[in-house]
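Example record

The entry below shows one chain as it appears in the dataset: sequence first, then structure tokens.
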Amino acid sequence: MKRPRKSLIAGVGVLIFTVILAGVAVTAHTNNEAQPEWLMVMNAETGEFQKDTTGEDYTLSLTGLSAGTLAFTDRPERQAQTWDTAAFLGAWASEFGDDPPNAVVSADGVRVAVTLSNPQAIGGTFTEIVQDSGPITGAVTFTATPLPGQEPPTSLMNQPTLFIDELSDPRVWHTRARSDGDPLSPDMPLTRGT
């Protein structure tokens, strides 16, 4: 009687182990699926490049930056969302780390390709920026490094648009999006990008 009981216990143990192992395998497969790559578009009222003291980099200053950043994926996902600009800029370092994104700044018929890093809110932090579904008040600056063969304009730019290269794994902060494209509302539920 003890022998069948030991066999039953061993069989149940093997069954439980198999179920757990199968669950781990499914989770590992799901986590290894390719994430969509997001491209971002920001608009500002004015912008200006100023050469820094190193002579290699520039400071890109933007005023009147839109409260919402348009983000979209390439095919086959074809998704689009509006992200909170201040939250996106506040999470910049954790999202891009030591690999700053390429970007194109386009204004007044001029386009220049740069890498963008170190976004700063002038006069505060991104969590302190006042937004009431209008432009971000105050200026936002970036360190801009021109790509080879690119020379940023040093005159004031009107209505600059930034096209920012891919982000493959945005965190949950980006998903307070509205399907109607209106600026984000603080009472929107957080979801994982659909």
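Notes for this example: Strands lie at 38-43, 46-51, 58-65, 68-73, 80-84, 102-107, 110-121, 136-146, 157-158, 161-167. The chain has three helices and ten strands.
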